[in-house]
Design a protein that fits this description.
The chain starts with a helix and ends with a helix. The chain has seven helices and two strands; from the N terminus they run ααβααααβα. 7% of the residues are buried.
């Protein structure tokens, strides 16, 4: 009888613990979504708590659309690297420059905050098809 009560108590404790963990994970996901949506609204309206200048975002170089000359203005990118970047287009993310062995990781670390990888289409399925066919 005692053993039966102990097993029921342990099962109840495990159930309570798992429900609290899932509740915490759900709240964390909700908080992340709210923070992301607030950041999106701030970016659209231009209101942010930190004082970032919008001119900085216009200086970003799009690795999927930049000319050879624009790429060569980036630190650590010469003619050969610029040609490699252009030949490997389009990139799903800017980190693909390293994963596809276009540039070394040290050079990428210098470029990380200066580049972006805009997608050719607004439709995610079209972009996915491009990257699938590229492989």
């Amino acid at each position: 009888m005692k053993q039966n009560l102990i097993s029921i108590a342990l099962a109840a404790a495990a159930l309570l613990l798992s429900s609290s963990v899932s509740y915490a994970a759900e709240n964390t996901a909700d908080a992340l979504q709210v923070a992301t949506s607030k950041a999106g609204v701030a970016a659209k309206t231009g209101h942010t708590k930190t004082r970032h200048k919008t001119a900085a975002s216009s200086k970003l170089v799009d690795i999927n659309g930049a000319s050879r000359e624009q790429l060569m203005k980036l630190p650590g990118i010469g003619g050969v690297e610029a040609d490699k970047i252009i030949a490997g287009r389009p990139y799903a993310t800017k980190s693909h420059l390293v994963t596809q062995n276009i540039i070394p990781e040290g050079v990428f670390d210098k470029l990380r905050k200066r580049i972006i990888a805009k997608q050719p289409y607004k439709d995610g399925d079209k972009n996915a098809a491009i990257y699938k066919n590229k492989k």
